[in-house]
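Collaboration report, partner site 2.

Our partner group contributed sequences for two proteins of shared interest, and the home lab folded both. The records are reproduced in the order in which they were received, starting with the first partner submission.
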Amino acid sequence: MPDKNKSIEKKPNGITRWWRETTGELRKVTWPTPNEAWHLTRVVIITMIMMSAILGLLDFVFTRLITLILS
C-alpha cells in the first residue's frame, strides 16, 4: 500500500502554467525603442491612408461603370 504521507509534487493548473509561460516568453522579447515604435506607427498610418484612398477611388470608378452599364 503506498505511503500517503509522501510529499506529492503539485502541478500548476492550466491558468497558472499559461501565465508563467507567457511572462517568461515576454521577457525574451526584444522591444522596440520609442523612436522605432513612433516611426513604425507613422508608416502604418500612412500606409492605411494610401490604401483607403486607393480603395475609395476603385469603389468610385466601379460604381460609375456599373451605373453606365445598367442605365
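Second partner submission, folded after the first:
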Amino acid sequence: MHKNSLAFLRSLFFHFITLLVLFCGSILPDNIDGQMQQAGSYYRNGEFDKAIEIYEDLRSQGYEGTSLYFNLGNAYYRIGKIGYAILNYERALKISPTDDDVKHNLAFANLSTVDRIQPLPTFFLFEWWETLLASFSVNGWTYLAYFFFILLLILVVIYFFAKTVFQQKLILFSGLAALVILLITVSLLIVKINREQTLISGVVIEQSITVKTSPDPQSTDAFVIHEGLKVNLEDRLDEWIKIRLADGKVGWVENKAVEKI
C-alpha cells in the first residue's frame, strides 16, 4: 500500500510540474510585452495603422494570444476594415470562447456586415452539444482534463489513508464522479481537436465577392457575398477555395478573398 501511495504521489507531482510549465510558458517575454504596450499607446493616440503594424509583426513572429487578436480587431475596426476586425475577433474567440469582451465586440462588428445568412435548422440536442463543445478552447478542455485527472489521483491517495468505512465510501463515490467527468472531458477534447482539424472556417476580407460555381473565372456566377461574412473552407484547388455558407450554399472564390481564422 505504501509503495502504491508513493507512486501516486510521484505521478501527481509530475502533472503538477507539467501544469506549472504550461502556466509559465504563457507569461509574456519582456520584448513582446514592450511591443504590446507600444501598440496600445499608438491605439490610444489614434494612430491605428501604427498599432496594427506592431500587432501584425508580433503575429508574423508566431505569437498568438487573446489580447493580441482582440486589440488587432479593435484597431482594424477603427479604420473601417470590418472583415479584418471580425477575422481577429474570431481568432480571439477561438482561444478564449468565454471572453465576454471578445463576444461583445464581435457581435457589434457583425452589425456592420451586409449579409444576413439564416443557418440551416438543427435538432436541439445538436445545438446543445455544439454549445457545450464551444464552451472551452482545446487548451481549456486540456486543462480541465488535467484538473479532474489530478483530482482523481488525489482521491485515490486519500482513499488509502481513510480511517473509516464512511470516509472510504464518500471518497469512492467522489472518485467515481471525477472519473465520469474526466472521461466526458477527454471525449469532448478529442472531438474538439478533430473538429478543429477537419472543420476550417474563414472570413471574407474583400468588400464584395462574386462566388463561382466552379474554380474558374469564366464559370457561372452563383451568388454574391460581402466583407466580414464567416464561411467554412471545404477544399482548395490552385488559387481557388471552395466555401460553404451557414445556409448550405456552396461555391468557389479566389483564396485572396478569404482568410482562415
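Feedback sent to the partner group on the second submission included the following. The beta strands are 200-204, 208-212, 221-226, 230-237, 240-244, 250-254, 258-260. The longest strand covers residues 230-237.
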